[in-house]
Protein backbone atom coordinates (compact mmCIF):
# COMPACT_ATOMS: atom_id res chain seq x y z
CA UNK A 1 0.00 0.00 0.00
CA UNK A 2 1.26 3.39 -0.84
CA UNK A 3 1.19 5.96 1.90
CA UNK A 4 0.73 9.51 0.80
CA UNK A 5 2.75 11.94 2.79
CA UNK A 6 2.11 15.61 3.00
CA UNK A 7 4.90 17.49 1.56
CA UNK A 8 6.84 19.23 4.27
CA UNK A 9 6.80 23.04 4.32
CA UNK A 10 3.76 23.56 2.17
CA UNK A 11 1.44 26.28 3.39
CA UNK A 12 -2.23 25.91 2.77
CA UNK A 13 -3.44 29.36 1.76
CA UNK A 14 -7.10 30.12 1.93
CA UNK A 15 -8.68 32.10 -0.87
CA UNK A 16 -8.04 35.73 0.00
CA UNK A 17 -10.03 37.30 -2.81
CA UNK A 18 -13.44 37.67 -1.04
CA UNK A 19 -11.82 39.13 2.04
CA UNK A 20 -9.89 41.69 0.05
CA UNK A 21 -13.04 42.54 -1.89
CA UNK A 22 -14.90 43.26 1.29
CA UNK A 23 -12.06 45.22 2.82
CA UNK A 24 -11.79 47.46 -0.21
CA UNK A 25 -15.51 48.00 -0.12
CA UNK A 26 -15.26 49.08 3.50
CA UNK A 27 -12.37 51.41 2.74
CA UNK A 28 -14.24 52.97 -0.14
CA UNK A 29 -17.29 53.43 2.09
CA UNK A 30 -15.38 55.22 4.84
CA UNK A 31 -13.39 57.29 2.36
CA UNK A 32 -16.56 58.60 0.78
CA UNK A 33 -18.11 59.44 4.12
CA UNK A 34 -15.12 61.09 5.69
CA UNK A 35 -15.53 64.80 5.95
CA UNK A 36 -12.63 67.12 6.52
CA UNK A 37 -14.53 70.30 5.75
CA UNK A 38 -16.19 70.63 9.13
CA UNK A 39 -12.92 71.41 10.85
CA UNK A 40 -14.24 74.78 11.97
CA UNK A 41 -16.36 73.10 14.58
CA UNK A 42 -15.84 73.62 18.25
CA UNK A 43 -16.82 71.16 20.94
CA UNK A 44 -17.79 73.88 23.36
CA UNK A 45 -20.61 74.96 21.09
CA UNK A 46 -23.84 73.02 20.69
CA UNK A 47 -25.71 74.65 17.87
CA UNK A 48 -29.47 75.17 17.94
CA UNK A 49 -31.57 73.09 15.56
CA UNK A 50 -33.54 74.42 12.66
CA UNK A 51 -35.45 72.65 9.94
CA UNK A 52 -34.50 75.36 7.46
CA UNK A 53 -30.77 75.18 8.03
CA UNK A 54 -29.53 73.80 4.77
CA UNK A 55 -25.90 73.98 3.71
CA UNK A 56 -25.45 77.09 1.56
CA UNK A 57 -25.21 76.60 -2.19
CA UNK A 58 -22.66 79.37 -2.49
CA UNK A 59 -20.33 79.44 0.47
CA UNK A 60 -19.31 82.97 1.47
CA UNK A 61 -16.11 84.28 -0.08
CA UNK A 62 -14.53 85.48 3.12
CA UNK A 63 -15.96 83.67 6.08
CA UNK A 64 -14.85 84.62 9.55
CA UNK A 65 -16.12 82.16 12.10
CA UNK A 66 -16.84 83.25 15.63
CA UNK A 67 -17.95 80.76 18.24
CA UNK A 68 -20.00 81.90 21.21
CA UNK A 69 -19.89 79.44 24.10
CA UNK A 70 -22.60 78.91 26.66
CA UNK A 71 -21.05 81.39 29.08
CA UNK A 72 -20.76 84.06 26.42
CA UNK A 73 -17.04 83.87 25.73
CA UNK A 74 -16.01 84.14 22.10
CA UNK A 75 -13.68 81.71 20.34
CA UNK A 76 -11.87 82.95 17.25
CA UNK A 77 -9.24 80.85 15.55
CA UNK A 78 -9.00 78.51 18.53
CA UNK A 79 -8.38 81.32 21.01
CA UNK A 80 -10.95 81.84 23.71
CA UNK A 81 -11.64 85.46 24.53
CA UNK A 82 -13.49 86.13 27.76
CA UNK A 83 -13.80 89.89 27.50
CA UNK A 84 -15.66 91.04 24.42
CA UNK A 85 -13.55 94.15 23.95
CA UNK A 86 -10.43 92.01 23.66
CA UNK A 87 -11.84 90.78 20.37
CA UNK A 88 -11.31 94.12 18.67
CA UNK A 89 -7.63 93.54 17.77
CA UNK A 90 -8.58 90.23 16.17
CA UNK A 91 -11.26 91.89 14.07
CA UNK A 92 -8.84 94.66 13.12
CA UNK A 93 -6.42 91.94 12.08
CA UNK A 94 -9.05 90.34 9.86
CA UNK A 95 -9.86 93.74 8.37
CA UNK A 96 -6.19 94.28 7.52
CA UNK A 97 -6.03 90.88 5.87
CA UNK A 98 -9.05 91.80 3.76
CA UNK A 99 -7.52 95.13 2.88
CA UNK A 100 -4.36 93.42 1.63
CA UNK A 101 -6.55 91.44 -0.74
CA UNK A 102 -8.27 94.64 -1.93
CA UNK A 103 -11.53 93.70 -0.32
CA UNK A 104 -13.76 95.79 1.86
CA UNK A 105 -14.82 94.63 5.28
CA UNK A 106 -18.37 94.62 3.94
CA UNK A 107 -17.44 91.72 1.65
CA UNK A 108 -16.63 89.45 4.53
CA UNK A 109 -19.24 87.33 6.22
CA UNK A 110 -19.14 86.83 9.96
CA UNK A 111 -20.40 83.36 10.72
CA UNK A 112 -21.73 83.21 14.24
CA UNK A 113 -21.83 79.77 15.77
CA UNK A 114 -23.47 80.34 19.12
CA UNK A 115 -24.36 77.76 21.74
CA UNK A 116 -28.08 77.14 21.93
CA UNK A 117 -28.25 78.21 25.58
CA UNK A 118 -26.06 81.29 25.24
CA UNK A 119 -27.70 84.58 26.13
CA UNK A 120 -29.06 86.40 23.10
CA UNK A 121 -27.73 89.67 24.51
CA UNK A 122 -24.17 88.32 24.25
CA UNK A 123 -24.69 87.48 20.60
CA UNK A 124 -26.16 90.90 19.95
CA UNK A 125 -23.24 92.60 21.68
CA UNK A 126 -20.90 90.56 19.49
CA UNK A 127 -22.78 91.65 16.38
CA UNK A 128 -22.59 95.26 17.49
CA UNK A 129 -18.86 94.96 18.07
CA UNK A 130 -18.41 93.57 14.56
CA UNK A 131 -20.56 96.37 13.16
CA UNK A 132 -18.29 98.88 14.83
CA UNK A 133 -15.43 97.25 12.94
CA UNK A 134 -17.42 97.84 9.74
CA UNK A 135 -18.51 94.27 9.14
CA UNK A 136 -21.98 94.11 7.65
CA UNK A 137 -22.85 90.59 6.66
CA UNK A 138 -23.66 88.07 9.31
CA UNK A 139 -24.75 84.48 9.20
CA UNK A 140 -26.34 82.76 12.14
CA UNK A 141 -25.40 79.14 11.95
CA UNK A 142 -27.76 76.38 12.95
CA UNK A 143 -27.71 72.61 12.76
CA UNK A 144 -29.99 70.93 10.31
CA UNK A 145 -32.89 69.31 12.11
CA UNK A 146 -33.59 66.03 10.38
CA UNK A 147 -35.23 64.05 13.14
CA UNK A 148 -38.97 64.44 13.38
CA UNK B 1 21.28 21.33 -27.93
CA UNK B 2 19.16 21.04 -24.94
CA UNK B 3 16.34 23.52 -24.70
CA UNK B 4 15.47 24.41 -21.19
CA UNK B 5 11.82 24.68 -20.60
CA UNK B 6 10.61 26.96 -17.96
CA UNK B 7 9.68 24.97 -14.95
CA UNK B 8 6.36 23.28 -15.26
CA UNK B 9 4.08 23.30 -18.22
CA UNK B 10 3.43 27.06 -18.45
CA UNK B 11 0.23 26.88 -16.42
CA UNK B 12 1.88 27.94 -13.21
CA UNK B 13 0.31 30.81 -11.39
CA UNK B 14 2.50 33.65 -10.30
CA UNK B 15 2.10 33.92 -6.55
CA UNK B 16 1.65 37.49 -5.38
CA UNK B 17 2.77 38.41 -1.94
CA UNK B 18 -0.52 39.21 -0.25
CA UNK B 19 0.71 39.95 3.26
CA UNK B 20 2.08 43.52 2.77
CA UNK B 21 -0.96 44.55 0.80
CA UNK B 22 -3.33 43.27 3.43
CA UNK B 23 -1.28 44.98 6.11
CA UNK B 24 -1.64 48.33 4.41
CA UNK B 25 -5.26 47.80 3.55
CA UNK B 26 -6.10 47.06 7.16
CA UNK B 27 -4.16 50.10 8.27
CA UNK B 28 -6.23 52.24 5.95
CA UNK B 29 -9.40 50.60 7.12
CA UNK B 30 -8.58 51.23 10.78
CA UNK B 31 -7.69 54.87 10.01
CA UNK B 32 -10.98 55.54 8.29
CA UNK B 33 -12.98 53.79 10.99
CA UNK B 34 -11.25 55.77 13.73
CA UNK B 35 -11.77 59.13 12.03
CA UNK B 36 -15.35 58.37 11.12
CA UNK B 37 -17.80 60.72 12.78
CA UNK B 38 -21.36 61.37 11.81
CA UNK B 39 -21.84 65.10 11.46
CA UNK B 40 -25.15 66.65 10.81
CA UNK B 41 -25.17 69.35 8.18
CA UNK B 42 -25.06 72.97 9.15
CA UNK B 43 -26.76 75.90 7.52
CA UNK B 44 -26.83 79.65 7.83
CA UNK B 45 -29.40 82.35 8.24
CA UNK B 46 -28.09 85.45 6.56
CA UNK B 47 -28.47 88.82 8.13
CA UNK B 48 -27.28 92.00 6.52
CA UNK B 49 -26.97 94.64 9.14
CA UNK B 50 -24.71 97.65 8.65
CA UNK B 51 -24.19 99.80 11.74
CA UNK B 52 -25.83 102.97 10.50
CA UNK B 53 -28.57 101.62 8.30
CA UNK B 54 -29.13 104.27 5.65
CA UNK B 55 -32.77 105.26 5.57
CA UNK B 56 -33.88 104.39 2.09
CA UNK B 57 -36.43 107.15 1.75
CA UNK B 58 -39.97 106.96 2.97
CA UNK B 59 -41.45 103.49 3.03
CA UNK B 60 -43.83 102.73 0.24
CA UNK B 61 -47.46 102.67 1.33
CA UNK B 62 -47.92 99.32 -0.33
CA UNK B 63 -45.14 97.78 1.68
CA UNK B 64 -45.91 95.91 4.81
CA UNK B 65 -44.84 97.82 7.89
CA UNK B 66 -41.75 96.29 9.48
CA UNK B 67 -42.79 93.44 11.69
CA UNK B 68 -41.46 93.78 15.19
CA UNK B 69 -41.15 90.43 16.85
CA UNK B 70 -40.74 90.75 20.59
CA UNK B 71 -39.37 87.80 22.52
CA UNK B 72 -39.55 87.97 26.29
CA UNK B 73 -37.69 85.75 28.69
CA UNK B 74 -37.36 85.21 32.41
CA UNK B 75 -34.09 85.37 34.32
CA UNK B 76 -33.09 81.86 33.33
CA UNK B 77 -33.54 82.64 29.67
CA UNK B 78 -36.70 80.57 29.31
CA UNK B 79 -39.02 82.16 26.81
CA UNK B 80 -42.16 83.67 28.37
CA UNK B 81 -43.76 85.67 25.60
CA UNK B 82 -43.85 85.99 21.81
CA UNK B 83 -45.55 88.93 20.19
CA UNK B 84 -45.64 90.54 16.76
CA UNK B 85 -46.74 94.17 16.54
CA UNK B 86 -48.41 93.97 19.98
CA UNK B 87 -50.24 90.78 19.10
CA UNK B 88 -49.14 87.90 21.28
CA UNK B 89 -48.73 84.31 20.33
CA UNK B 90 -48.50 81.26 22.50
CA UNK B 91 -45.95 79.39 20.41
CA UNK B 92 -43.81 79.61 17.31
CA UNK B 93 -46.11 77.66 14.95
CA UNK B 94 -48.93 80.15 15.54
CA UNK B 95 -46.48 83.02 14.91
CA UNK B 96 -45.43 81.24 11.75
CA UNK B 97 -49.02 80.83 10.54
CA UNK B 98 -49.73 84.49 11.17
CA UNK B 99 -46.64 85.61 9.25
CA UNK B 100 -47.48 83.22 6.42
CA UNK B 101 -50.99 84.71 6.19
CA UNK B 102 -49.53 88.24 6.09
CA UNK B 103 -47.09 87.39 3.33
CA UNK B 104 -49.54 85.47 1.20
CA UNK B 105 -48.65 83.36 -1.79
CA UNK B 106 -47.41 86.10 -4.07
CA UNK B 107 -43.76 85.86 -5.01
CA UNK B 108 -41.39 87.80 -7.21
CA UNK B 109 -40.30 91.44 -7.45
CA UNK B 110 -42.40 93.89 -5.46
CA UNK B 111 -44.32 91.20 -3.65
CA UNK B 112 -44.90 91.21 0.07
CA UNK B 113 -42.46 88.38 0.35
CA UNK B 114 -39.66 90.49 -1.08
CA UNK B 115 -40.24 93.67 0.87
CA UNK B 116 -41.26 92.29 4.24
CA UNK B 117 -38.85 92.88 7.03
CA UNK B 118 -38.69 91.47 10.52
CA UNK B 119 -37.00 93.10 13.46
CA UNK B 120 -36.23 90.86 16.39
CA UNK B 121 -36.38 92.47 19.78
CA UNK B 122 -35.15 90.01 22.39
CA UNK B 123 -34.55 90.09 26.11
CA UNK B 124 -30.90 89.95 27.10
CA UNK B 125 -31.08 86.60 28.86
CA UNK B 126 -33.11 84.81 26.22
CA UNK B 127 -31.58 81.56 25.10
CA UNK B 128 -30.12 81.84 21.65
CA UNK B 129 -31.90 78.67 20.52
CA UNK B 130 -35.23 80.48 20.84
CA UNK B 131 -33.97 83.21 18.51
CA UNK B 132 -33.17 80.60 15.89
CA UNK B 133 -36.66 79.13 16.37
CA UNK B 134 -38.16 82.58 15.81
CA UNK B 135 -35.99 83.15 12.73
CA UNK B 136 -37.05 79.75 11.43
CA UNK B 137 -40.71 80.57 12.02
CA UNK B 138 -40.63 83.83 10.08
CA UNK B 139 -38.15 82.98 7.35
CA UNK B 140 -39.90 80.08 5.70
CA UNK B 141 -41.18 76.57 5.83
CA UNK B 142 -40.71 73.26 4.08
CA UNK B 143 -43.45 72.46 1.63
CA UNK B 144 -44.79 69.07 2.74
CA UNK B 145 -45.53 68.03 -0.84
CA UNK B 146 -42.33 68.90 -2.62
CA UNK B 147 -39.93 69.03 0.31
CA UNK B 148 -38.62 72.35 -1.00
CA UNK B 149 -38.08 75.35 1.24
CA UNK B 150 -40.67 78.09 0.71
CA UNK B 151 -39.27 81.42 1.76
CA UNK B 152 -41.26 83.99 3.69
CA UNK B 153 -39.36 86.89 5.17
CA UNK B 154 -35.76 87.17 4.07
CA UNK B 155 -34.81 90.49 5.62
CA UNK B 156 -34.16 89.93 9.27
CA UNK B 157 -32.47 92.29 11.64
CA UNK B 158 -32.01 92.75 15.34
CA UNK B 159 -33.24 95.62 17.44
CA UNK B 160 -30.54 97.25 19.57
CA UNK B 161 -29.68 94.94 22.46
CA UNK B 162 -31.53 95.46 25.68
CA UNK B 163 -29.28 96.16 28.60
CA UNK B 164 -28.97 93.52 31.24
CA UNK B 165 -26.81 90.60 32.03
Secondary structure layout:
The complex is a heterodimer of chains A (148) and B (165).
Chain A (H helix, E strand, L loop, with lengths): L16 H17 L15 E2 L11 E7 L5 E3 L2 E3 L6 H13 L7 E7 L5 H13 L4 E8 L4
Parallel strand pairs in A: 1-6, 2-5, 5-6
Antiparallel strand pairs in A: 2-3, 3-4
Chain B lengths: L17 H18 L6 E7 L18 E7 L5 E6 L2 E3 L2 H12 L8 H4 L1 E6 L5 H12 E3 L6 E3 L3 E4 L7
Parallel strand pairs in B: 2-5, 5-8
Antiparallel strand pairs in B: 2-3, 3-4, 6-7
Helix pairs in contact in B: 2-4
Features:
heterodimer, A: 148 residues, alpha/beta, 3 helices, 6 strands, B: 165 residues, Nucleotidyltransferase, domain 5, 4 helices
What is this entry, summarized?
With 148 residues, chain A is an alpha/beta fold. Chain A has helices at residues 17-33, 88-100, 120-132; strands at 49-50, 62-68, 74-76, 79-81, 108-114, 137-144.
Q: Would you kindly provide a written description of the structure presented here, covering whatever features stand out?
A:
The complex is a heterodimer of chains A (148) and B (165). Chain A has 148 residues and is α/β, with parallel strands linked by helices. Chain A has one domain. Chain A is 29% helix and 20% strand. Chain A has a six-stranded mixed beta sheet with strand order 1-6-5-2-3-4, covered by helices on one side. In chain A, strand 3 and strand 4 form a beta hairpin. Chain A is elongated and about 100 Å long. Chain A starts with 16 loop residues before the first helix and ends with a strand. Chain B has a domain of 92 residues: 2-Layer Sandwich (Nucleotidyltransferase, domain 5). In chain B, 28% of the residues lie in helices and 24% in strands. In chain B, the strands form two sheets. Chain B has a five-stranded mixed beta sheet, covered by helices on one side. A two-stranded antiparallel sheet of chain B has the order 6-7. Classes of the chains: A alpha/beta (148), B alpha/beta (165). The interface between A and B is large, with 54 and 53 residues.
Amino acid sequence: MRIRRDRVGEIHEGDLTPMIDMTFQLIAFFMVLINFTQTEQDDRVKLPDSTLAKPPENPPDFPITLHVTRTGSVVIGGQEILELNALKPYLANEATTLELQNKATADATIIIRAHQDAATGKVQELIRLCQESNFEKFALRAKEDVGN
Amino acid sequence: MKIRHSTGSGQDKIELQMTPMIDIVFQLLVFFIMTFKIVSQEGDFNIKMPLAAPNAGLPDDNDLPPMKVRLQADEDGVITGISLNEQSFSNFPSLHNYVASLIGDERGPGSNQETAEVELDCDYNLRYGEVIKAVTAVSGYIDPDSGEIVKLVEKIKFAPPRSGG
